[in-house]
Description:
Elements: E1 2-8, H1 14-32, E2 35-40, H2 45-51, H3 57-64, E3 68-71, H4 92-103, E4 107-113, H5 126-131, E5 134-140, E6 150-155, E7 158-163, H6 169-184, E8 189-194, H7 200-213, E9 220-225, H8 226-235, E10 242-245, H9 247-260, E11 268-272, E12 278-282, H10 299-312, H11 316-331, E13 334-335, E14 348-349, H12 352-361
Parallel strand pairs: 1-2, 1-3, 3-12, 5-10, 8-9, 8-10, 13-14
Antiparallel strand pairs: 4-5, 4-11, 6-7, 11-12
Amino acid sequence: MNAKIVTIPGDGIGPEIVAEAQKVLEKVAEVYGHQFTFEKVLMGGCSIDAYGEPLTDATVAACQSADAVLMGSIGGKVGQSHWYELPPEKRPEAGLLKLRKSLGLFCNLRPAHLYPELRRACPLRESIAEQGFDVMMVRELTGGLYFGARKTETVDGEEVATDTLVYHDYEIRRIAKKACEIAEKRHGHVTSVDKANVLDSSRLWRKVVTEVATAHPGVQLEHALVDSTAMQLVRNPGQFDVVVTENMFGDILSDEMAEIAGSLGMLPSASLREDSFGLYEPSGGSAPDIAGQNIANPLATILSAAMLLRYSLNLTKEADAIEDAVAEALRTGFRTGDIMEDDVEGLTCLHTDEMGDKIASLIR
């Protein structure tokens, strides 16, 4: 296969972890006889510094011409970076929201898998960690509060801020369909999360998801409220298979799942549109406090590259090879600092580039 992959290194640790994922993809191409070409573009804070805006038309065009996009983390620390002195629409995260919209990326997949070797890092009680879990969060990306009309005004001498939560039938229908299709390839169980006891948007959400599920008789659908789901994820995450929800709820719940999986450095994600195109990135942030120190965990980005092969390029064996290599590295005691256990014998702590080298060496 010949494929063009655009890389967006981003800010903070982004360039370091993207470089290791690209290294692994290049090894996959070598071993399996593919040709991947890479084009690097800027987005986020580095784009603001270079061009005065977080996302340029040239970056959008480059992404639109690619088969897939591999991205690092963007942004910095609010209150510590000059980027956050700019108006909200000029800040790094605004570039990501605009890019998702420009590329039609409506579906975010965030798997949370607890590796057996990392169960001690799981903050849940030992009995739950021993059982393990493997949850796929399916988050709607282009609707809801993040994209609704907003304004700040003065009313009777006081500042008033308004954000509008809007969902259309078709937005709910297509994300529900995607969740059911994913569940059909897993364990056949979908939990749809809303706040239907309070919000009209959630009542529409529940109605449409129910309608979509009837076309997937092999899928068992249940509905849950978002506050109850947040509680159940820390009580017994193993009860969940596929969780589908709207934009803001998905943002919050997927970060909760990242924490119970032991480390944000282990969690990949994919943002898909209705064809095979997708944008792939780690779930964690840009970690500017450790940027440039060669100590960041690249495994989430490497696992995101595996998702790129699976969902955009339909290279299942190659995706399996990356995931197997990560599992083997962990099983044989290789760690980065964030998942290192000092009281366990036989573990080797690797730098960022060393972990990339290790995973690449295990691609077979």
